[in-house]
Model the fold of this input.
Amino acid sequence: MKRLIYQVAVGAKSKLYQHCIESVKAYCGMHDFDHIVQGVPKLRIKPDIFATGRSKESYEKHGGFLPIFEKENAFSYFKDYDQIAIIDADIWIRPGSSNIFLEIDADADFAGVVESEMPIEPWYNQKILGYSRMQYGTLKIPTWYGQYNDKTGFPFMNMGMMVMNNSFAKYLNDETPEQFIRRSEFKKFVDGIGPYKWSTDQTLLNYWVNTCGMNVQRLDWKWNALFTAVESDKIKEANFVHFFLKDKLPNKGENVKELMAKV
Done:
């Protein structure tokens, strides 16, 4: 099996990003995975400036494009790999962690971790409940019918870590990553219309993988544990720790030594 872990870190890398990327590099070396870190923008997805609800700062500071969609460039590598994982640059992998690719079933196309299925703190539970209603309340997602929960909202996945078998590629319909993102059905997500003003690729991908007919698998929370959101006494059980809220980190994550002592 030929396997790839793909990451994106465009622009200057923080100490946190450097540390996390090094942990992924070591993990790939241990399991003999290929590792690609995209350091320059390639897709350069731009919102429609005449329709966008996004602030000018969100795209003008990056030269007019949205770096949040750059990691979809990994989709172009399915011609070369049996399995691909996309891992955000702020995810640290615990040394000695087992093979993530063995967690995805052979008949699954896509796998990720549902946020509400993590052992989350009460404050974050309230946050994702509101987020869930805002992002997914008006979207028609057949596979989610009957799964809305008054306490946890919709079962959306955190797309900071996703794993795909090669069968995933057929749902791209031979499109390039840019053509995929530019599908008309995704325009409201890219342009940030209405409730999607602050959305990343997370809303787009959750919507797509749960409406296009692919087989979606839910992974154990330990493969994408959200630091500070997951109960503090549980975080040391996680294989992958996701430092997703910089404002809640010591020195915004730049004090790596102090941060590592907590995990």
